[in-house]
Specification:
It is built from eight helices and six strands. It is α/β, with parallel strands linked by helices and about 210 residues long. It has a six-stranded mixed β-sheet with strand order 1-2-3-4-5-6. Helix 2 (about 10-20) packs across helix 5 and helix 7 (about 140-155) packs parallel to helix 8. It is globular, with a radius of gyration of 19 Å.
Length: about 210
């Protein structure tokens, strides 16, 4: 399938976008999300360059802005896409779900930005990202901890081992300290083990620290 938008974009520009993007190992669900947003075709299978060439101009341009140029948009949508791709790169051969609802032990259903399931269909990680605004503070990380702890204590969270708090807005000094303090109070046994991580997006990459 040939990109129907090539005449409008120009073969050279579209080709340059495809050439750059094919090196980024973009996950299938990201391509599908961008294709849906841009009302673009997308080959279901095939080589990454063929799949990219099946997408329209708008989709290629958006992917290039997000992942190659690392642009920021006012709504923080581009940062969220980068975070989704980052989480996917951490958990190979796993299913990454966006805006997933998971029940906790309290009976409350928690909507998490990202959830990861292993090959057996079991939740192993959850993640959230602050895309815009002020840096993440201690109250933010405390809320995140409580949500994750409730999920971990519920029936669907028994195999949950990782929780990632990402930020494109940075972290205040007390934020990671509070998360580490709360995590340090957890029972120290394999059944209750839960590793919290902070992922700060800076200089086009995520740098991860354990809390």
């Amino acid at each position: 399938m040939v990109n129907k938008g090539f005449p409008k974009f120009g073969m050279s520009q579209a080709g340059a976008f495809v050439a750059a993007l094919k090196n980024y190992n973009l996950p299938d669900f990201i391509l599908a999300m961008i294709a849906k947003e841009c009302k673009s075709d997308l080959l279901e299978r095939g080589r990454i360059d063929d799949r990219l060439q099946s997408m329209n101009d708008e989709a290629l341009s958006m992917l290039h802005r997000i992942f190659v140029e690392c642009e920021e948009d006012e709504a923080g949508k581009y940062a969220q896409y980068r975070f989704y791709a980052f989480v996917s790169s951490v958990y190979h051969k796993c299913t990454v779900l966006v805006n997933e609802t998971i029940p906790g032990a309290s009976g409350k259903n928690h909507r998490v930005q990202v959830a990861v399931k292993n090959a057996g269909g079991v939740y192993i990680a959850v993640a959230t990202n602050k895309a815009t605004g002020n840096p993440v503070g201690a109250k933010d990380t405390e809320r995140f901890y409580k949500v994750v702890d409730d999920i971990k204590s519920g029936e669907q969270g028994t195999m949950l081992t990782d929780a990632i708090y990402g930020s494109s807005a940075g972290f205040k000094r007390d934020a990671t300290k509070e998360l580490a303090r709360l995590n340090g109070q957890r029972p120290d046994d394999p059944e209750n083990r839960l590793e919290f991580k902070a992922a700060n997006f800076e200089n086009t990459i995520y740098s991860v620290t354990k809390c």
